Amino acid sequence: MELTVILSALTASLAWGAGDFAGGLASRCRAAARIVLASQAIGTAALLLFGLWLREPLPAPAVLLAGAIGGLGGGMGVLLFYMSMAQCKMGIAAPLTAVASGGIPLFVGLLTEGLPGAGQLAGFLLALPALWLISRPDGSTPVRREDIVLPLLAGVGFGVFLTIIGRIEPGQGFVWPLVAVRATSMTMMLVVSFAGRRTAAGQATGRFPWGLATVAGLGDTAGNVFFMLASQTGRLDVAAVLGSLYPAVTTLLAWLLLGERLSPRQNVGVGMAMMAVMLIAL
């Protein structure tokens, strides 16, 4: 297993985790669609500058179309995830979304590339329950239907997005397919944002959180770039499972910055996640 795949996928999880932490906080004072729109506009600007700096030629129309289709899933996933982080129980939303988003490309990767080695397969089996333990707090509060439905739908959207961009082969494009992703998802967010502008205005509190939106946009964009790098240099299932460890980053940031204490269950999950990474890297 090349070190590039491991490091790229783990860097993607770090970036996604930081972006989701910032986006979830921002969605508590503004409508999720507006936070997504602002953050993706910032991320797209950074992506365009990166593409111009690389001087990457435009890929074939079919590749751009694949990116645009992936953008529909990704846009839906981000919107529903921020909604679930703002309206539902974060401790349930994060693991459900992560397991669903990682499970779809994992299944596709196993079908198209066959079974990995025994150690990597053991790492896969260890990583998914680790995600759940890391993101689930202790407690016995009742779970509502929307606490389950919204995160699962968000995970399906993310899973479709990751599968599509993860299937783009090296040489078919790198930055511009992600720009196509952003063009589609931003168009979707514009429609949703304007359709719900009255509701958004009613829930606005204080100044618009541009700082959090910037962190969310740059984190999401960096995560996409590193995930595509990982999937183009190694197995899709490995990239998907390691990239799906982002709830650990979100949980640790909540502990460091918000003072949320890690439960014994979460500490076990962190240990399992570290073991999973070592097994997959073997």
**Unreliable residue stretches:** none
Topology order in helix (H) and strand (E) letters: HHHHHHHHHHHH
Largest sheet: none
Q: Can you tell me the overall shape?
A: globular
Can you describe what's shown?
By secondary structure, the chain is mainly alpha-helical. It has one domain (3-116, 135-243). 81% of the residues lie in helices and 0% in strands. The chain is built from 12 helices and no strands. α2 (32-54) packs across α9. It is globular, with a radius of gyration of 18 Å. The termini are close together. 55% of the residues are buried. The mean pLDDT is 81.
Q: What are the salient characteristics of this protein?
A:
single chain; 282 residues; mainly alpha; 81% helix
